[in-house]
Amino acid sequence: PPPSPSPSSPGIICLEGCIFQSSDGICNDGGPGSEFNSCEYGNDCSDCGPRLSLPPSPPQPPPRPPPSPSPSSPGIICLEGCIFQSSDGICNDGGPGSEFNSCEYGNDCSDCGPRLSLPPSPPQPPPRPPPSPSP
Question: I need a surface site. Which of 23, 70, 81, 95 has the fewest CB within 10 A?
Answer without folding.
Answer: 70
